[in-house]
Every structure is written in structure tokens, then in C-alpha cells.
Write a structure and sequence with these properties.
Strands 3-2-1-4-5-6 form a six-stranded parallel beta sheet, sandwiched between helices. It has a three-stranded antiparallel beta sheet with strand order 7-8-9, with helices on one face. The longest helix has 24 residues, at about 170-195. The chain has helices at about 20-30, 60-65, 80-90, 105-110, 115-120, 145-150, 155, 170-195, 205-210, 215-225, 260-270, 270-275, 285-290, 290-300, 305-315, 325-330, 335, 380-385, 390-395; strands at about 10-15, 30-35, 70-75, 95-100, 125-130, 200-205, 240-245, 250-255, 320, 340-345, 350-355. By secondary structure, it is α/β, with parallel strands linked by helices. The chain folds into two domains: about 10-210 and about 335-395, Rossmann fold; about 240-245 and about 250-320, formyl-coa transferase, domain 3 (2-Layer Sandwich), CATH 3.30.1540. The chain contains 19 helices and eleven strands. Helices cover about 40% and strands about 15% of the residues. It is elongated, with a radius of gyration of 26 Å.
Amino acid sequence: MTAPLEGIRVVELASYVAAPSAGALLADLGAEVIKVEIPEGEIYRHSRPRLQGIKHDFPEAPQFQMDNRGKRSLAIDLKRASAQRAVRALVDRADIFLTNMLPHRLERYGLDPDTLRRARPELIVGLLSGYGREGPDAERPAFDYTAYWARTGMMDQMRDADTAPSFLRPGVGDHAAALALVTGFLSALRMRDRDGLGQVVDVSLQHIGLYILGNDSAQALATGEAPPPHDRHRPRNPLWNQYRTADDRWLFLVMIESERYWQPLCEVLERPDLAKDERFGDARERYRHSSELVAILDEILGSRTIAEWEEIFRGRKVIWAPVATLVEAVDDPQAVAAGVFSEVRHPVAGTYRTIAPPLTMSRHAMRGEKPAPALGEENETLLREAGLTQEEIDQLSR
């Protein structure tokens, strides 16, 4: 069976998460992806679990492995003229050039999109940045923590009233940006099939953040006001709220259409009296008396453990979820059955589980089971492909 992107070649000059994870998805789809790294390897490659406070001797960085699986590795110093020439030669043989390098550095190495596409109009160039190619911050370095999380209003919106802004977990905005990049590449390839011309696919973390926060962002654009923060003690809808259980865990009720679910919830909780209580007679009254209803639900839901509620709610007409720990989430039977996880056989780390590609295809197996390449493992082969002499290859290997 032919993979969707079989025959497509990608040169990736990028570090950390967003652009490399897009490259990994292209590799999952069958593209040949050449990853260009600095000679010592990027920091993300060396971010092993023990360095992050995890008490495990796993010898690789699992997150780097996930975001770089199935690629080829070229580790060279771009400060050297021969290395720059080699990368440009590889790009000359590629369909896609993917990078998160800042514009002034791309120009320094002759890898800016204008220069590349003047020589090869059919080339597709993918740019990942913090803030886009135009505007006062086009050259500003960024992570998703800054451009996607803090600066978009998401960090401020995603907290309960009177609490400090929450900390973003690594790679959250980056993986969202990767999906946008891949969408752009697939569309650009489709257009090139028709007219032979490539184009620039430009994705910024700031834009992705505002898009992901689109429900709130759209309201702020239209009204000039931000939706009010959630207050679990006085929510607009007590059936859409988090509650603590007897074993100090949390469950999340998400019955947005409260009129539809109020009666079934009262039945499940074995409190038919609440359904007859005038204070809670409809959605408006439940909002007016939300602090009273939250106090009642706190007492009811706090009387049993999360496991007991799991058993009680099973098969009933209520929408809810336990607030799972991450360790629980990666063993969730539903996720396992749905193929969310894959297994990698690594030459150093052995066999371990990881996250499979975020989609399935009925005609192409998206297994995500290949390891990331060892640092520079194909240097000589790739430099020969780039047309370097043995003497130049030996010099770059020193």
C-alpha cells in the first residue's frame, strides 16, 4: 500500500516542538524527513525524564522521540560555509522546507523563503514563528508559553476567580500549531499538483492561541469585553462545574443544556426533592440560586469516592468525567481500545509506549512506531547526497 506522502521529501531545520512535531506527522504520512541539528544535538533531544524530576532512568527523551520519529538526522554546524552549502543542496532536492529559525538567521544562511523560491518556484516553505512575518515582533524569539499562552489572553482566561494564572504544560500550543502546519502543507501540495507552483505556509503561535481560544476571542472582538472567569462557588450553570469527592478527587459535570439534564441528574443522585424545589425550577432560577445549589451538590458528591460515582453514573443520562491523573489517563481503557497509544522499539531504550499520530486513516496505517534517529546517524550519506567531497565531509565531522 502506498503511503499518502510517499515520494515527498522534507528538509526540517527546526528545534523544540512545533515545527518538528509537524515534521513527525509528515513522516507518519510517508514523507522522507531530513532533520538538521546542531552537532551536539538540540536541548530537547537531551531532556530526559530525570532532568524533569521524574524518578526513572529512561535513557532517552520520550517527548523528543515522539516529535521526531521516523526522520533522518544530519548534525552539522551551519556557521561553516560547506555546511550551509550542503543544506541548500538538500533543500534544492526537497519538496518542503520546514523551519522555525528567525528571519534574520535564514537570510544569513541563504535559506529565506524569497531566496529559495526565486531559485525553485515549486518549493513549499513552512515557517513557524512566535508572532508571524510582519509587524514589530516578527524577529522576536518565543515559545508557546509566551506567544500562545500568555500574550493571547489564554493564560488569564483559564483560571478560576481570585487565583493566580496557571502554568502551561510543555508543547501544548506547539502541537496545535503542528496540525495547522500540516494542513497548510497538504493544501499546498494539492495546489502544486494543479499548477506546479509552491508557496509559503506561515503559522504563528500567537495566531494559533487566539484561534484555539476562539470562543472567547470571537466574543472579545465583537464586544470589546472578555467573558467573565469561572467561579465554581457561583457558576452560571451548577451542572457545568467541578466537584470534590470523598477521596479528595474531583469530578467534572458538563451538562451545558441544564434543562435537558436537570431531571435525570436528580434521579441519579436519588434526590427527587431537588427537581421539585422552586429555587432550582429552571436554568434561570438555578443561576440565581447557584451558590445554594453548589453547596448542596458539594455535600452530595462529596459523600462518595470517585470510583463509586463512576459506578453510579455508568450508563445513566448524565455527561461527566473524572478528573484523571496523567498516569491514569495513559492507561484509560477507552483510549487503549481506540488506538491512542503505539509501541516503539528503540535500539537503546528498548520497547516503550508513546502517543500515536492524532488521526487514523482507513487506507494508511498511522502507527507512529518508529524511533527518532540517533544524532547525525546519516551524516555521511546525506552529505554525499548534497554533493560534498570526502574531504569536506571529514572536516564537518570534526
